[in-house]
Structure formats: structure tokens, C-alpha cells
Write a structure and sequence with these properties.
By secondary structure, the chain is mainly beta. The chain is built from 1 helix and 21 strands. Strand 17 and strand 18 form a beta hairpin. The termini are far apart.
Length: about 270
């Protein structure tokens, strides 16, 4: 009788984030030997990064991803490459991301890099990476019965006196809605009147240098939450527009960008 092959115990990795935006992975091999590298594979792209795994205390193997190592924006699935075999998917262990919540990047490099490890629905370890140059970070959102007020801060560029915000309709050729911005050094503040918007999804952008400068997607990245959409939820307001009543409210997209959803109210 043929005996079934023994099951290979999953490899588990603890993750610690540092205040500079780097990550350290401690892998518990659970009997595996010859583990040489931790491999990050960018999902939906032919790209991977190998990080050497070196022995540390208690038989663990450690790999470091410094903030100085570029990690293009996307989702990076984590594997351990064992000598002589195919890379094995890693599962998440203990995760310490406390330093991310208090992190304030300098923006001196002209960009903001964010890496947040998280568990997928299948229980595997993946790192969500953002690389924004420049970056407009959402601070406080205030929702009223008629409007959304956005407070935030810009990194990697300056705010000009003629800075403004844009609301752009997704998947439609509608002209962008321009909104005035109050500027205080690197901080910005503006309001979105729901009655100005037709039904659909409107993405929020900042023009920190005015018409001559870049268009920067407004997002919330600087914390330890990889997927904001199910965590940060906001009330929807019912307002009257020239096209009839609508319900409107802000939400975070799958990429943690800020948008406003407007839906017609059925008669």
C-alpha cells in the first residue's frame, strides 16, 4: 500500500515594522533546513525581490527589508525559498506594527514609501506596498448633512497659494469639479458639497502646485491598516440636487484612496 506523503508544516513569519518604514521578518522553519531567502513576489507582475535569511536566536531565521530598498506599489506575496525546492508560501505570525501609527515621514526624498504586512483570506502573508511621489495624506474627515470636509497634509512637495482640489468622475468623461483649498504650510483643508455631484463615484485629487503642478491622489496610508474600506466607514447623507435626491458619502477604495460615492434615491 502506498503511504501518503507527509504534510509539510507551513512556515510562519513574525513581522516587525520600524519607524523609518522598514520591515523585519523572523521565520520559524519548524524543522525545515536550508532556508536561504525570503522572497517577495509582486502579484500580477513578473517581479520578485529576494532577502537573505540569516540565523538568529532560538533557531529562527531573519530577513530585513530596509526602507531604503525600493518596493514598487502593489501587493507582494511572501515565500521562503528552501534550497533544492520550490518557494513555500509563508503564513503570518505575531505582527508588531505599532511604530507605523506614529510615523511622520519627512518627505525629503520627494516620496512616501509605506509597507504593511497582512494576512490574506487564505491565511497567507502578503505585504501591501505604496510608493507615492508626492503624497497627500488624509488626516481628519468631517461628515455633515450636506458636505464632506477633508483635512490633510502633503509630503514630498510644497503647497502653493493657488493649490486646489479636484473631484474627478470615475469611468466618465465629466469635467473635473474644482474646489478651493485652505493652505497652512504643509497642511490643506477643503470641503466637498454633495449637491454639486451627479450620481457615480468621484475620486479626490490634490493639485498642490496649482494648474502647473502635479495631480496627487488623496489617500490615507500612514497607519497600520492595510485595507481601510471595511474598517473606516462613514455615514451617508441624503441631499437634494437638480437631478433629484441622492445619497452621498466618502469611502476608501481598495488602494486606500479617498473617494465619494453618490447614489440616486429611488422614487
Amino acid at each position: 500500500m502506498t503511504m501518503p506523503a507527509p504534510r509539510v508544516a507551513p512556515l510562519c513569519a513574525d513581522c516587525v515594522a520600524d519607524s523609518a518604514g522598514g520591515l523585519t521578518f523572523d521565520v520559524t522553519a519548524r524543522g525545515a533546513s536550508g532556508v536561504a531567502h525570503l522572497v517577495l513576489r509582486r502579484r500580477d507582475a513578473d517581479e520578485e525581490i529576494g532577502l537573505p535569511l540569516t540565523p538568529v536566536a532560538d533557531g529562527r531565521l531573519r530577513a530585513a527589508l530596509p526602507s531604503t530598498v525600493a518596493l514598487p506599489e502593489g501587493r507582494w506575496d511572501a515565500y521562503a525559498r528552501v534550497t533544492g525546492s520550490e518557494p513555500q508560501r509563508l503564513t503570518p505570525g505575531a505582527t508588531d506594527l505599532s511604530s507605523l501609527a506614529a510615523r511622520i515621514p519627512s518627505g525629503s526624498r520627494g516620496h512616501v514609501a509605506v509597507r504593511i504586512p497582512y494576512a490574506t483570506r487564505q491565511g497567507n502573508l502578503t505585504v501591501r506596498s505604496w510608493l507615492r511621489a508626492p503624497h497627500a495624506e488624509v488626516g481628519e474627515l468631517r461628515v455633515s448633512s450636506t458636505a464632506l470636509t477633508v483635512q490633510g497634509r502633503v509630503y514630498g512637495t510644497d503647497l502653493a497659494p493657488d493649490a486646489y482640489a479636484e473631484l474627478r468622475a470615475r469611468h466618465r468623461p465629466d469635467p473635473a469639479r474644482r474646489t478651493e483649498v485652505a493652505v497652512d504650510q504643509t497642511k490643506f483643508n477643503f470641503s466637498v458639497a454633495y449637491a454639486r455631484l451627479e450620481p457615480g463615484v468621484w475620486d479626490l485629487w490634490l493639485r498642490p502646485g496649482g494648474e502647473a503642478g502635479p495631480r496627487v491622489r488623496i489617500a490615507r496610508l500612514l497607519d497600520d491598516v492595510a485595507d481601510k474600506k471595511p474598517v473606516f466607514t462613514y455615514p451617508r447623507a441624503r441631499v437634494q440636487t437638480p437631478d433629484g435626491p441622492v445619497e452621498a458619502g466618502p469611502y476608501y477604495t481598495r488602494d486606500n484612496d479617498l473617494s465619494v460615492s453618490v447614489s440616486p434615491v429611488g422614487s
